[in-house]
Each structure stands twice: as C-alpha cells, then as structure tokens.
Amino acid sequence: RLTDRKMDFDEIPPLRLKGYAEPVAVARPRGRRDVKVAVASETIGRQAEIALLARRLDEIKRGTGGVLILSAEAGMGKTTLVQRFFDLARDRSVHVLSGHADAVESRTPYYTVREVLQGLLGLHSGMTAVDARQLVLQRVAADCPELASHAPLLNAVLPLDLPETPEVRQILLEVRAERLGDLVVALLQAHCQRGPCAVVVEDLHWADPASWSLLRRIADSASLLLLGTCRPIVTPPPEFA
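Request: output the structure for the sequence above.
Response:
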C-alpha cells in the first residue's frame, strides 16, 4: 500500500504458506509507475511555485540551465508539484529524464541516478542484456565518439557487464568517478543539443554519496534544469554543498 503510488504491480495467484490457514495474496512489482494524475485540487495555494517551475522551463528552452530544489516535510505536496512540472514540460516540448532515491538503497553507489541514465540511453526493462549492451555502445559512439572507449565505466551505474577496454583498465580507481562524470555529462550535453531537457530526481534526502557527486557534475556542466525534491536537509552533503 505504501508503494502503490510509485510502483505498478502484477497480481499473481495466492500462495499457501506454512502457518496461514488461508491463501496469502501476492503481487509482483513490475516497475516504477509513470504517474500522471489530475491533482488540481491539491495545488491550490501553490500558484507561486507553479509559476516558478514554468519560468524555469521557459529559461531552459532559451539555453539557461540550473538547479531547483523543492524542500518540504513529507506530505506537503512535493510529488504533486513534480507531476505539475511534468505537465508543464510536456506542454513546452521539454524532455524530462527522471529518477529517485530510496531509503533501502541509500548505500548503493549511483542508485539515485540509475533511472536517469536508463532513460538517457533508451534502455527499458524488456531488453535483453545483449541488446542493452549493444544499444549503449552505439549511443556512446554516436553522441561522444571521443569517449567511446570509456563506455565500460557505465557498469558502475547500470548492470551492463560491458568488458573493460584497455583505456579503462589504465584509469586509476581513484579517478574513475571523475571520468564517469565526464562521460555522463558528455552524453547529457549531446542529448540537450537535440532539444531542451530537464532531469528530475525525487527523495534526495536518501541519495547515496556517489549519486550526489555525479549530480553535482551534471548541475555544473550540462545545459539543463536539474529539479530535485527532498525533505529538509540541515547540512547539505559535502558532495553537493
């Protein structure tokens, strides 16, 4: 019930379990829900925030990127404003890449940006591993050919299992995160050249440190709008301060 607004589920036949007299209802998670719900009644009193979102979207259409953070306690309407942002972006033909952090995955490196990269590279859950690897290599070669040999660095974010190239093997462990950031920023900049783009990341208060660092690189270098939501954070992570 707690995840129903963010996940789609398939119902499967009930299971008979030891210790239970009746069959137990079971559901299998299918993936993150693309929520597009009519929420006009919930945005009363948020006209200033909605106007700001619209203004920032107009600015990125003119080539001005930046960062916008929606910070509020749980239940204050952050998700509602994000859904309004998706509507405003669609009306302006701004492509939105989205991701989210998760409390359970707060120690998993790059988990927060995993969905963003999947959307950027055109990956989806129905693809085979072979097709996913082939698509990623093609996209990297087409969008940033000078970094094509660095494509295996994406293994740190996505379960691609790309074989390491000689160039990647020579990259020292302590600078791999920086080289990964170079590659992601280059891919995003190529994406922005095809049309205005925004990145939305929800629940940043649960983001892992590696994702914070990569988001900082994206915010500093890519010509897009980065919109994040979070509960109030007294001290920003050092990676994003």
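Confidence is low (pLDDT under 50) at residues 36-42.
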